[in-house]
Amino acid sequence: MGEFDVIRHFFQRPPRRKDVVTGSGDDCALLRVPADALLAVSTDTLVSGIHFFADMDPVRLGHKALAVNLSDLAAMGAEPRWVSLALTLPQIDEAWLAGFAQGFLELADFFHVDLIGGDMTRGPLSITVSIKGVVPEQGAMHRNGAKPGDAIWVTGELGGAALALQHQFGQVMLPSEALPSLLERLEQPTPRVVAGMALRGVASSGLDLSDGLASDLGHILRASGVGAQIELDRLPLPQALLAQPDALRWQLALAGGDDYELCFTVPEAQRGVLATALANAGVNISEIGRIVAGAPQIEWLYRGEPVSLVLNGWDHFKEST
Amino acid sequence: MGEFDVIRHFFQRPPRRKDVVTGSGDDCALLRVPADALLAVSTDTLVSGIHFFADMDPVRLGHKALAVNLSDLAAMGAEPRWVSLALTLPQIDEAWLAGFAQGFLELADFFHVDLIGGDMTRGPLSITVSIKGVVPEQGAMHRNGAKPGDAIWVTGELGGAALALQHQFGQVMLPSEALPSLLERLEQPTPRVVAGMALRGVASSGLDLSDGLASDLGHILRASGVGAQIELDRLPLPQALLAQPDALRWQLALAGGDDYELCFTVPEAQRGVLATALANAGVNISEIGRIVAGAPQIEWLYRGEPVSLVLNGWDHFKEST
């Protein structure tokens, strides 16, 4: 097989979506966007040695590369439809490519997303995924809509992926029965696409948690011009994280990153419809605090009392939209 | 300046286009696509050491990264509107970033394209650009529409960029007066966006030349199920390339790559409108051959007689859509 054929073999398939007028195999993909919706676009790069270990299972890596990108669409309540994949590889490794394609395309199929093109180049291993979806203009969930009095919610659990990473670094020792589900949180996160779409018209603001609640909630606070109180004892944490010492627990839960859960705010008037809206989203939600008037800062509360936390930042100059 | 601030400083600007509902600074960009057009999407990656020299002038690199991507839209006759930029950098170098942003944004502004987001990560230098534009469904220029009897045309000149690269490699010595324009062909190609849009409804097929005419025309021939005759003595070549020995001249003109000119086919019925359609496209066009019935192969002619050429391929497993 020539190199072009290898790539075609693993990634090129006839379009499945009827709104793909021209798929891969021409200079561009041509797509039909519904007239009553906005196009939502987000791009993420994962670099070997920075965002994942070079020897990470390619099936899981393929899943994760798409999942973190889908999470950005979920954060705005958009419905994913099409994705471009730019893959830079040091060499053609057919087994690796087969695994990566499997993980990537299985998740794409699950959400009815068509791979509509991209680029393959030789170079140090890195993956850039650009997802495209649609969202009704009035339904999109922005960062700037939070108001004092709104409740703050998150989907799923926080800190599990960061705890698994600490285990991989040899910094903590986890019980073997806890490890598989935490590793899955790290390597195969479930993007909250269905929850995001269900929150259209319910949440006043929202985003996805990639760097950790402390940093990411700050984006909502600054964009909305409000402050927040977070009740640490209401954070949804995996059992194995609850078992860790205080400092490590809060560090991983609030600044560990890689959660890919949604954080969103809900006005009191919408509280009643929230549970119904998310009944079929396939994920639990937890109320963890409230928006308050004031400077864009987070006040941490424990059993109702303010506490001060020292959290170490995490910045590989990632700035993603 | 913190790292986030650096990035914002160089790349983040308020949206200029009215169809950018939400620009960078949220989880996704939200864009308004006209109801009567298709969305055209293309993605390209440039890797340091593969597609460009690591010490390439950043202004020119910023220009080229966007230009090669715009060229894919031009190849389908699409109008560019929005672009995402994923930049992976070994370190924050403010002078380099300022130069890159300048080259990238000046070209974007020239074509009224808004930078609507992307990603910045640490890692080996590479650049992934994903351009988005619009094209009327009936006007898009595909690869599969060529018919026997159609004339084959190209914009601009062929082989100039490849000749400049040979000079940089020390393989040829060019006269100093020829060098600037050839280097500009290599490092600051002009994407044929206006020509591509003008060819809507005129060309029966088309694409842009990135790997060289011999390879790229093959895509049209296979997609259309036809053959071609190319008259070597009608190829538009820069003076400095005409001065090279035969074998090198044809190698660079036909398989050198990096031309970013359009190659397109025109039915006889459209011949009369071609000159008028392209009058304001800012580039000359040359008729170089014709489509013939038969297997998807190119017959090379010189002064009307068939000649055989041996061309060396160029494949860094690039497969781009």
Structural commentary:
2 copies of one chain form a homodimer. Chain A is an alpha+beta fold and 321 residues long. Chain A is 31% helix and 25% strand. Chain A folds into 2 domains: 11-135, 2-Layer Sandwich (60s Ribosomal Protein L30, Chain: A), CATH 3.30.1330; 151-305, Alpha-Beta Complex (Phosphoribosyl-aminoimidazole Synthetase, Chain A, domain 2), CATH 3.90.650.10. Chain A has helices spanning 3-11, 58-74, 94-110, 160-168, 179-187, 193-198, 213-224, 239-242, 246-255, 271-277, and strands spanning 20-22, 29-31, 38-47, 79-89, 114-122, 126-135, 151-155, 205-208, 227-231, 262-266, 285-292, 298-302, 305-307. Chain A starts with a helix and ends in a 14-residue tail after the last strand. The model of chain A is unreliable at 315-321 (pLDDT under 50). Chains A and B meet through helix 1, strand 2, strand 3, strand 4 and strand 5 of A and helix 1, strand 2, strand 3, strand 4 and strand 5 of B.
